Automatic annotation (TrEMBL):
NCBIfam families: AceTr_1. This is Uncharacterized protein. It holds the Pfam family Gpr1_Fun34_YaaH. Its main location: membrane. InterPro entries: AceTr (IPR051633), Gpr1/Fun34/SatP-like (IPR000791). It is a multi-pass membrane protein. It comes from Janibacter cremeus. It is found in: Membrane. GO terms for cellular component: plasma membrane. Keywords: Membrane, Transmembrane, Transmembrane helix. The chain crosses the membrane at residues 30-52, 58-78, 117-137, 144-162, 174-194. The keyword Transmembrane applies. The keyword rRNA-binding does not apply. Belongs to the acetate uptake transporter (AceTr) (TC 2.A.96) family.
């Protein structure tokens, strides 16, 4: 008697387990990074705009160290963990800017430079303008809120640099006004991120750019 044969049936392959996105367990650090940048920027920009006497500028030093500096640097490191190259580069860099500003203006003796100090500060600010300009190109593929921040920030750096190069208070004042607008745009971006995340839906529009 012949033995019955049965067609070979392959067992179904186990379903692939989707891998979580890098750093998906980390809350979006953009809200913190933008907030730290905005608050520190608005305080310094109000001084540059002449709304308060320049003698009170040292009030920004603590903010530059703790909030614009360390907190924003932390936001950048968390963006690295999330795999966000743009956010990591932006927040880490501007965290470094505020830490360098804190050290440069509060802990560096620049008296030996004499009148040449304006040229040094102008170079410092213009170098940051160049960095911000190419980050603006990358920001064109993020969202309108972030792009607005980078466009305004580029203009701010350029005006402040020119104000130092030419020792022109009027140009520095203009840079202060644009800096205030930059801070407001960054605050809006932070507000949008933290609000949309909390409400779990798009409550505050940021204008995605694809």
């Amino acid at each position: 008697m012949s033995q019955a044969t049965h067609p070979h049936v392959d067992a179904p392959a186990p379903a692939a387990i989707p891998k979580p996105a890098p750093g998906s367990f980390i809350a979006d650090p953009a809200a913190l990074g933008l907030a730290g940048f905005a608050l520190t920027t608005v305080v310094l920009s109000v001084v540059n705009a002449g709304w308060v006497p320049s003698t009170v500028e040292p009030v920004v030093f603590g903010l530059a160290f703790a909030y614009g500096g360390i907190a924003q640097l932390c936001a950048g490191l968390w963006e690295f963990a999330r795999g966000n190259t743009f956010g990591a580069t932006a927040f880490s860099s501007y965290g470094g800017f505020w830490l360098s500003f804190w050290y440069l203006t509060g802990h560096t003796d620049l008296s030996g430079a004499g009148s040449d100090i304006n040229q040094g500060l102008g170079l410092y600010l213009m170098a940051w303008a160049v960095f911000t300009l190419y980050m603006t190109v990358a920001a064109m593929h993020t969202n309108n809120a972030v792009l607005t921040v980078f466009v305004l920030l580029t203009i701010t750096y350029i005006l402040l640099a020119l104000g130092e190069f030419f020792t022109a208070d009027a140009i520095t004042t203009a840079g202060g006004y644009v800096g205030i607008l930059t801070a407001l745009a960054a605050w809006y971006g932070s507000f949008a991120v933290v609000t949309n995340s909390t409400f779990k839906r798009a409550v505050v529009p940021i204008g995605p750019r694809e």
